[in-house]
Amino acid sequence: MEDKNVKKALKLSIDENILKEAKENIPNLSKLFEETLKIVLQSQNKEEYKIKLEIEAKEQARTQIDRELEVLNAQLNNHRNMTNDTNEAQEFAWRKLYSHYQQTQGNPHPKIVKESSETLQIEETRLLEFVNEISIFSKEIGVNQIRNWEHVKKVANQYVAGGI
To answer: Distances from the Cα of 80 to the Cαs of 12, 53, 154, in angstroms?
Structure first.
């Protein structure tokens, strides 16, 4: 009868220090080497192909997600830039209107009112009422803060009937 588990001796070249440490920490090096070889050989068969296909599919999915993230990040940056531009334009329009309102003692030029109205997205009549009411409460709001559109919008509900 033939023995299927015939063992053969194998000569390996291994770094002396590594072999010494392995003998101290691993009781049966032959069995470990044999089991490791079995695992490697088994994974090279059908499983290896399946694993490679799965890796490729995951890499393709990751590439697609990376592209989608790039697009979303670009959209976010564009939105932030537009928001920043809008905020800066609104700050400028408010400062210009309020400054001109003070210089003309409450009678700003219609062109400045129209431009500010468009930029601040507030109807002209309401904007004139608003700037008048804000100027009445300028001391309470803060002389330095009154030129800051974001601050004025925040405190408007406290000082202006109907807010902004």
So the answer is: 63, 40, 21
